[in-house]
Amino acid sequence: MTSSTTVHSPLRLYGRSGELAILETLLGRLRDGDGGALVLTSPPGLGRTALLRRTAAQHLGRHGGPVLFAAAAPTEQRLPYSGLHALLCSAPGPLPVPPDTLLRSGITPGGLLGVLRDLGAEQPLLVCVDDAHAWDPDSRAALGFAARRLGAGSRVAVVIGAADETAFAGLPALRLGPLDDDAATAFLDRLTGAAGDVDPVVRCELLREAAGNPRLLAGLVGRLTPGQLAGRTALPYPLPGAEGVLDAHAEHLGELSADTRTLLLLAAAAEEHEPDGAGSDAALLLRAGARAGLATAQLDQVLFAPAGTAGALQRAGSRVHFSHPLLRRAVLHRAPPGRRRAAHQLLAGLLAGPGSPPLPALVQRACAAPGPDAALAERLETAAAAPCPHGERSAALARAAVLSADDTLRAARFTAAAEQARLAGDTGRARAMLARVGPHPAGGAAPYVRGMLALRDGPAADAREALLTAAELLAPHDPRRTLDALFGAAEAAWHMGDAIAYLDAMNRIPVAAADRSMARYRAGMCAVLAGHPDRGHALLRCCLDSADRAECAGELLRAAASALVLGEVEAACRAGARALAAVRTRGPESLLPQALEQLAYAELRAGQHARARAHALEGLHAARRTGQPNSATHLHAVLALAASVEGPAEACAAHADAALAGAGPHGLAQAAMLATWAVARADLAAGRPGEAAARLGPLVRPGPGTGHFATRMLAVPCYVEAMALSGRADEGAAELAGAVEEFALWTARTTDPQVPAQLARCRALLAPPDEAAARYEEALVHHDRAGGDFERARTRLLHGQLLRRLRRTREARGPLRDALVGFERCSARVWAERAGGELRAAGEAVDGPDRSGPGPLAGLTPQQQRIARFVAEGATNREVALRLSVSPRTVDHHLRNVFAALNVRSRTELARLLDREAGTRLQDRDEKNRAHP
């Protein structure tokens, strides 16, 4: 029983702003005299009680309103009306019905409704009931009846906390979910404030283990020492502190039959050798239940009937899952140790049949072991090898570590478990295993795993230093991991845009330890970056040619990278596709985001934007699933580049923002440059060359602090176009000439088929009008050899713009028409709209979206419509002139005619008029959609 006077001021709640807003709305209606009801449901530990107490404190503290507050007492669940007795005993004053009479004669549901209305007659009444699912059935039924009849004018609000809404069907329900990452992190900071800094690996493990459950997180933190929190001491395995939440989850298990509890124990034990979230095998459970003496009818009822285990187990095909992961742990926690070990031994016997893989049975035997067992640990370690999946190997090695009494051996096995978890794409589990190793393990294996994890989810500079350190430690005894660490350090430097650091890492690779393909790749990349492109390209071509016989995903990814450096984009696409197939067939799962990123980038270079977008989206999902935010950042940049061609502009901006947000803190210079280039290209498509030039200028200029060394040249054509179209070619003539000259040198070294055409186009943009046409024709000849609709259409668009600017309107229509068709063929919608606008301005009707419609602009010429829209967007006459390739005087002339035709006197009035037109057109479209769904 909890009286209203014991509801104290609440502490801060984390991650519950939405729920608090809903409860505040309920209290606001109650203050206005209107009642209502709400059921808060959640598994144990998610903060249901805290929300109820916060709500009660707000009503009592701010407005002094009466509060009835009661929490269930499970020991009184079989006593009729005990719940309502506790609730009414919390009333601050006399009651119409003495509470003690409830225990003798009970109360009708209508009688309870009358009592609540009487209590709220003078002041609005708030009723809060916690853990109502544990109330006696009579009290639950009466409370549900009364709550359903509270509404306008009732002056009573009821907030019920329960595990689920089954007993209160028909009432509004709000289900609490786990805290999100930000809220859980903030709560952890509050919990550990007095302990000082928490080691990042320990922090990740606590957050992973708690899975957004605040009560569980508090329990875990409370059981760790300051040394363990700071990472000075290895974490225990498993983490202590979950007992309270597990006991709460297991409360109702005692009501189940003995046979049902036995089957639940077998189901919980059977998941120990399975990957996380995979559940257990229904056929194995049937065999185990029969071996345990359960009747077939009982097994069928429990495994196939929905109510067979009171909702604890759920069947999905051949798999059986617990309704909540903590419930499975609660079953194991509640079982006596002897029964738990017996269940594991039974399962081990069933799994050890002839022809069965050894690992599942060994894991079950390890779970049944009462203490350290060196022989069993060694057998587990031996069995944790290919072809077993990396996730299963990680679980087996972790069990082997638990069985190891020797600290050094224990740390080595936890480190091996972490590496296998990383390869399986489970970075959370990998960090959890590392947290058990300790801060200063012997050898370089643990620093190697930490560095490889940081390469995918941390600052690139940190990953590079960690991997270089690991390589030094591993060099005397582990040449394979030494190579991987150095290649990883080089990759980190590449992401940073630090060519010197890249060369440093690659030059440390011992030639004797690398195979022929790897040695050629190392030597070729070093030669290219050291200024010896001919020698480097020859070596990389050998590396690419040898990949025809390769099956290893790593070798195929290096071949794809070699092809991109050479400029052989089609070969890069083929090698990337083979690398992706190899990862999907043989793994590891951790390489999937990189394989998809490599392929998507190669497809972008080849002009296959739709394919690039599809592969990059898949890669983004894979990066999120495997906990690789750095890969997600690079994939956002690729998606931004694809959207800068296909549109819409909002998608380009969103992906670019996401890429830049991730690139900044982690020093991912390549992703930042690609994202900026994407936004600049979208600016060009939208007719904003000035903005595009401002973005691209810092990226393409030579010297430190500029764009990425490997991709800087790719943005030069866009920069030259932006400078020329914005009218800044003269003021930056020397800089532009230098950029084009450098681009010409790069063109002579690369075999990318689009680059010669882009070079000719750059020269056409900077040439005098009488020379430009010949340069454009030269570019088109190169386009004919290279193929690719998008780049060819861009050249035709610029050629047509030039002809129209020279008032050769009739001649301009041919190139502009070709540009429009080319953009439409490759789904470059924004670019097609720009080409269509140019074509309309040249006097040719264009089919497409009607932007004018029957509105006020319908009476204007196409050129006047374009000027009106640009001015309404805020552009000056000079900016409009640059966009339309006309003089400012021509814009001024057209604008005067626009003002006269529309009867407006200022730019502001024009903008308001077009805003009203846009709103009307949107409303008409919505009405049309409703009429013709």
Give the overall silhouette: flat
Distance between the termini: 56 Å
Helical residue percent band: 55-70%
Reading side by side through the largest sheet, how are the strands ordered? 2-3-4-1-5
Query: Which sheet architecture does the biggest sheet show?
Result: 5 strands, parallel
Q: How large a portion of the residues is in β-strands, by DSSP E?
A: under 5%
Residue-averaged pLDDT, rounded?
87
Rg over CA atoms: 35 Å
Low-confidence stretches: 1-9, 849-853, 921-933
Query: How many E strands?
Result: 8
Classification by helices and strands: mainly alpha
- Number of alpha- plus pi-helical segments: 46
Describe what you observe in this structure:
With 933 residues, this protein is mainly α. Strand 7 and strand 8 form a beta hairpin. The chain is 64% helix and 4% strand. Mean pLDDT is 87; it is low at 1-9, 849-853 and 921-933. The two termini are 56 Å apart. It is flat and about 105 Å long. Helix 18 (374-383) runs antiparallel to helix 19 (390-402).
Secondary structure elements and their pairing?
Elements: H1 17-31, E1 36-41, H2 48-63, E2 67-71, H3 82-89, H4 99-105, H5 109-119, E3 125-130, H6 137-147, E4 156-162, E5 173-175, H7 181-191, H8 200-210, H9 214-222, H10 226-229, H11 243-249, H12 258-270, E6 280-281, H13 282-291, H14 296-304, E7 313-316, E8 319-322, H15 325-334, H16 337-351, H17 358-368, H18 374-383, H19 390-402, H20 407-423, H21 427-435, H22 445-457, H23 460-474, H24 479-496, H25 499-507, H26 516-529, H27 533-546, H28 553-566, H29 569-586, H30 592-605, H31 609-625, H32 629-646, H33 649-666, H34 669-685, H35 689-700, H36 716-725, H37 733-749, H38 755-766, H39 769-786, H40 789-805, H41 809-825, H42 829-841, H43 862-872, H44 877-884, H45 888-902, H46 907-931
Parallel strand pairs: 1-4, 1-5, 2-3, 3-4
Antiparallel strand pairs: 6-8, 7-8
Helix pairs in contact: 1-2, 3-4, 5-6, 7-9, 8-9, 8-21, 11-15, 12-13, 12-15, 12-16, 13-16, 16-17, 17-18, 17-19, 18-19, 19-20, 20-21, 20-22, 21-22, 22-23, 22-24, 23-24, 24-25, 25-26, 26-27, 26-28, 27-28, 28-29, 28-30, 29-30, 30-31, 30-32, 31-32, 32-33, 32-34, 33-34, 34-35, 35-36, 36-37, 36-38, ...
